[in-house]
Structure formats: structure tokens, C-alpha cells
Amino acid sequence: MNDIRNIAFIGAGNMTQSIVGGMCKSGYPAEKVWISNPSTGKLDKMKSELGVNTSQDNLEVVNAADAIVLAVKPQLMAEVCDHLKQHIDNLADKLIITIAAGIRIPKYRQYLGDDIKIIRVMPNTPSLVGQGMSGLVADDSVNDADKSYVTEAFNGVGETLWVSDEDQLDILGAVAGSGPAYFFEFMDSLAKGAVELGFDPEKARAMVQQTCLGAAQMAKESDLSLEDLRKQVTSKGGSTAKGVETYQQRELHNISADAVKAAVNRNQEMAKLF
């Protein structure tokens, strides 16, 4: 990573742990990373394992940093931001990054000031195993160097995708953010189907999870469309064709589309709560 800045994380939850772990694994200097949290358990663990700087004081880590990652729950964001605004004079000089769901950029300007530079990032839970899909959005206050910096940082836990506006980020959240739950639901249904036919539960899970992993890797490495990949596996008149036909009769496409729409609607409802 060429652009190394002092970066502070406010909040030491699972996502912070995965992002910081990925950054350090990718070569980011631990001495440039600061983390604050009200309790010490997670801080002590990260300091011991990674060598990062830790504190129970948000102001201490923010004063030490050029970039600040707001990684607290949405319902705590207003309080945390108000404390920063009251006590940090040069917030406009720092890059603000938020990974909280639901809160839009204009609201952060109300919380922190109209002159802040802010990027919203929506990581997903596979970031915890280095296979994340993080969506990013910023307005015109953020320059290309800042965007490149955040892209490289979050590439440490998977892949990144810039979107054009916050409506697009809602859609990304409904697919990539919520998507792992959809896949787990589908995987669970496949495994239960095998168990109902007499398969051992542990073996059913092993079979399903490896099949899912393999299919995802094939999709990632292939230039074919997802539909064409499906056709490759589906011999005309064979058993796979019968299984796929069942999904098509039940209109799996519409079910998935409705699920994404429902999640987008909820994202938009949540934005009105803050």
C-alpha cells in the first residue's frame, strides 16, 4: 500500500477486527492504526495479536489520526459524532469513513459539519474470513487520493465496488450485505433436503458447503454468464434438469427479486430513523 496514513477506528467489534486484521496482513504498519472502545477486552486482544495502538478514549485516537473509521452501531452514531464535533477542531482536515448501515451522508454533515470529507463503506460479514464485498460511495468533497486510500484499505478483506450514489449503495447492501443470509438459507434447505432422504446431517452440510464454495469459485474464474454456467451443468433430460425445472416452476427468480426489493425498502426505511 503506497498511501500510509494514521487511521483510527472508533469501535472494536467484529467488523473492525476483520478490517484491521486484513490491513495488517496486507502490510499496513500496525503503529499507524489506532482503535478505541469503551471496554478493554477486545482492545487488549487486538493490541496483543496485531501490535496496534489502543485506547478507551475516542478523542485520543482521533487526534492521532488522519482518517477516522466510525464503526459504532447506528443508534449510537449521533452521540459519538456530537462528542467529536465538540472537542475536535480540525475534523474537516481528516477523512471520515463510516461502516454503519442506514445513515446517509447528509445526516453525517448535520452531525459533524458541512465541511467534512466522508466516504460510506458497506462491508459484509465474509470480510471476517477475507472474502468480503465492500460497497463504497462518496460525494464531490472526496478526492481521488482519498478514494484510492480507502479502496486499498478495504481490499485487505476482500473486494471493493464503488457505486454512483447512496440509492445504489442500498441495492448493494440488499444483495452483498444481506446476500450471505440468503445463501445460508438456501444452503440450509439443500442440506435438510438431503437429510430428509436419509443423509447424515454432518455429511450433508459438508457436501453443501463445498459445493457452494466450488460453484462460487467457478463463477469467479469463468467469463461465461451465470446462466451459461448453469446450462453447462444441466444435461438435457437429466437429473439436474429436473431439479432446475422445479426451481423455475416455483419462480426462484421472482423470489430472489422480491427478497432484494424488500431489503432495499428496509434500508430506505432505516435511513429515515436517523
TrEMBL record:
Pfam families noted in UniProt: F420_oxidored (PF03807), P5CR_dimer (PF14748)
Per the annotation, which location comes first and is thus the protein's main one? cytoplasm
GO cellular component term of the entry, any: cytoplasm
Q: Which parts of the sequence bind NADPH?
A: 58
The segment(s) forming the Pyrroline-5-carboxylate reductase dimerisation domain are 166-270
Q: What is its EC number?
A: 1.5.1.2
Q: Which GO terms describe its molecular function?
A: pyrroline-5-carboxylate reductase activity
Q: So where does NADP(+) get bound?
A: 10-15, 71-74
- What keywords tag this UniProt record? Amino-acid biosynthesis, Cytoplasm, NADP, Oxidoreductase, Proline biosynthesis
Q: Name one GO biological process term.
A: L-proline biosynthetic process
Transmembrane intervals: none
The UniProt catalytic activity note for this protein reads: L-proline + NADP(+) = (S)-1-pyrroline-5-carboxylate + NADPH + 2 H(+); L-proline + NAD(+) = (S)-1-pyrroline-5-carboxylate + NADH + 2 H(+)
> What domain of life does the UniProt record list for this protein's source?
Bacteria
Question: Which compartments is it annotated to reside in?
Answer: Cytoplasm
Annotated ranges, domain Pyrroline-5-carboxylate reductase catalytic N-terminal = 7-102
Pathway(s) where this gene product acts: Amino-acid biosynthesis; L-proline biosynthesis; L-proline from L-glutamate 5-semialdehyde: step 1/1
Broadest EC class? oxidoreductase
Q: Which HAMAP family match?
A: P5C_reductase
Into which family does the record put it? Belongs to the pyrroline-5-carboxylate reductase family.
Q: What does this protein do?
A: Catalyzes the reduction of 1-pyrroline-5-carboxylate (PCA) to L-proline.
Name this protein carries in UniProt? Pyrroline-5-carboxylate reductase
Can you name the source organism?
A: Idiomarina seosinensis
